[in-house]
């Protein structure tokens, strides 16, 4: 199996690296996909939003058929939705992918590739209204949303939960649990500064905050 990670200038680092860690750990230690590939338009190093540089494994022109494709978000998506080569690559690969996933504003690339029409999806909380304005997406304020073979997640760190949920779906709860333990991903549950109470916080964040408050009391 080939698991591709789309990379492009200006992507948000954790959108990519969080899921990469989970999926590559699955590959290495729990019989996951044989190949985890960083895929870019060319083989030149890709500079992310905060300066991290990544060397692609393959370019669009020599990328093998992918079984799975993950599209990160970040400021770069605002430009890449108008990149015909990138949008065509996503649309063409999606035709034979078993699943296509996006993190954060990677959702907008999936939409431009024609993958979200009349589907449920989510994105970073600050872009939820922009997603609604597209008019043909059923916007769900949740951390991870699956609609058939299309998976989307909220922003940045949510990509880790997306990857674990996807692994559970593909390989079972015990495998996902082994990976969760192996990478020691057990968030503290603390809401710093009570920011979940802000009016613009998504529904799932507000609900989570209320549950945590109730638990502490």
The whole-angstrom Rg is 17 Å
Spell out the helices and strands N to C. EHEEEEEHHEHEHEEEHHH
The CATH architecture designation of the largest domain is 3-Layer(aba) Sandwich
Please, how many helices?
A: 8
* Percentage of residues assigned to helices: 25-40%
> What is the number of strand segments?
11
Write the CATH homologous superfamily of the largest domain.
Class I glutamine amidotransferase (GATase) domain
The average pLDDT score comes to 94
Per CATH, the class of the largest domain reads Alpha Beta
How far from one another are the termini? 47 Å
Structural class by secondary-structure content: alpha/beta
CATH topology description of the largest domain: Rossmann fold
Shape: globular
User: What portion of the residues fall into strands of 2 or more residues?
Assistant: 15-25%
Biggest beta sheet summary: 7 strands, mixed
Instruction: State the low-pLDDT regions, or none.
Output: none
Main sheet: which strands, in order across?
Answer: 5-2-1-6-7-11-10
* Number of domain units: 2
Task: Explain the layout of strands and helices.
Layout: E1 2-6, H1 13-29, E2 35-40, E3 46-47, E4 53-54, E5 58-59, E6 68-71, H2 77-80, H3 84-94, E7 99-103, H4 106-112, E8 119-121, H5 128-132, E9 137-139, E10 144-147, E11 150-153, H6 158-171, H7 173-182, H8 203-216
Parallel strand pairs: 1-2, 1-6, 2-5, 6-7, 7-11, 8-9
Antiparallel strand pairs: 3-4, 10-11
Helix pairs in contact: 1-6, 1-7, 6-7
């Amino acid at each position: 199996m080939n698991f591709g990670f789309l990379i492009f200038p200006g992507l948000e680092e954790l959108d990519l690296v969080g899921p990469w860690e989970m999926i590559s750990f699955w590959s290495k230690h729990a019989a996951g996909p044989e190949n985890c590939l960083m895929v870019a338009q060319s083989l030149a190093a890709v500079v992310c939003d905060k300066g991290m540089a990544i060397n692609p494994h393959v370019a669009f022109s020599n990328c093998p058929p992918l079984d799975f494709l993950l599209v990160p978000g970040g400021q770069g998506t605002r430009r890449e939705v108008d990149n015909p080569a990138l949008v065509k690559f996503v649309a063409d690969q999606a035709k034979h992918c078993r699943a296509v996933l996006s993190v954060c504003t990677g959702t907008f690339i999936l939409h431009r590739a024609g993958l979200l029409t009349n589907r449920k999806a989510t994105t970073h909380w600050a872009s939820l209204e922009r997603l609604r304005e597209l008019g043909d997406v059923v916007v769900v304020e949740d951390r991870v949303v699956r609609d058939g073979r299309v998976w989307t997640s909220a922003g940045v760190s949510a990509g880790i939960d997306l990857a674990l949920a996807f692994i559970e779906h593909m390989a079972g709860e015990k495998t996902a649990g082994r990976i969760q333990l192996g990478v020691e991903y057990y968030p503290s549950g603390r809401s710093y500064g009570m920011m979940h109470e802000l009016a613009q916080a998504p529904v799932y964040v507000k609900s989570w905050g209320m549950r945590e408050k109730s638990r502490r009391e």
